[in-house]
Write a structure and sequence with these properties.
By secondary structure, this protein is an alpha/beta fold. The protein is 36% helix and 14% strand. It has one domain: NADP-dependent oxidoreductase domain (TIM Barrel, Alpha-Beta Barrel). The protein has an eight-stranded parallel barrel, surrounded by five helices. Strands 1-2 form a two-stranded antiparallel sheet. It starts with a strand and ends in an 18-residue tail after the last helix.
Length: 333
Amino acid sequence: MEYRRLGSTGMYVSEISYGNWITHGSQVESDAAIKCVKTAYELGITTFDTADVYAGTKAETVLGKALKGMRRESYELFTKVYWPTGTGKNDRGLSRKHIIESCNASLKRLQTDHIDLYQMHRFDYETPVEESLSAFDDLIRAGKVHYIGFSEWNAPQIANALKIQDERGYNRFVSSQPQYSALWRVIETEVVPLSIAEGIGQIVWSPMAQGILSGKYLPGKKAPAGSRATDKKSGKGMISGWMRDEVLTAVQKLKPIAEEAGLSMSQMAIAWVLQNPNVSSAIMGATTPKQVKENVKASGIKLSADTMKAIDKALGNLPEKDPKKNESPNPRA
């Protein structure tokens, strides 16, 4: 495993991190999930990403159990706040009330006294951004949070927040957590250039495009039993947008490219996002230790210019690049 600095901070993260969105607390039983976490840690993954909303807060509980007993200083723990975690009118969004209460609840579920990186899970159109930034700054000053970031914000939102942080002397954002893969490149034209200039690192999710880039979904064929595309609880809605024959056919063209590079298709997909120097870490999910062992082999891989060109040629005009697609919904909609 290789390690990269998180943006311009002094904290290093494993360039492949373990995320438990979809899996822990829902698709994977607790014992199996804990085995995956321990395997990841043994193989050098020190960065673990979760969120209060995952599996209705159960994912944080499972991760807390899995990490119990490990030296706290030896790993980096990330979680997030924004999405509904209850039925109450204040159980969502980025109000000071919800941020502080959610952070305290996450600390209990994760069985720790601090979060290494706390992230605003989306942009909140209802709460004044100054209120949210002030609450995050207070959490850092209280010692409950070390660094702060956001997920799926667009460039104008990021720039405005940084301006407020600088004007008020607040701790700055150091990370961005967007979706990013060879098929989803919406951050490249605006978010990445701004992030480079401001010392913000990308912690990207879904580098395999919800599993599409693994090559296991074939054009004209039913999705494999037990896969994400067949499980309503594990992201079937998100992956459905890619389950088109034109996409699946193009993805199969990547197989010989991966073979020539000596990689599996999954390894090549993860390695592809890591070629972007602004990416601090790529989040992978796994339902078995075997998947963890395969995917960590993408660390340290340098894809040649010819391989990168071949990937672009195979995918053609299918990758989404429109920066306007990087948009947060209203949590009360």
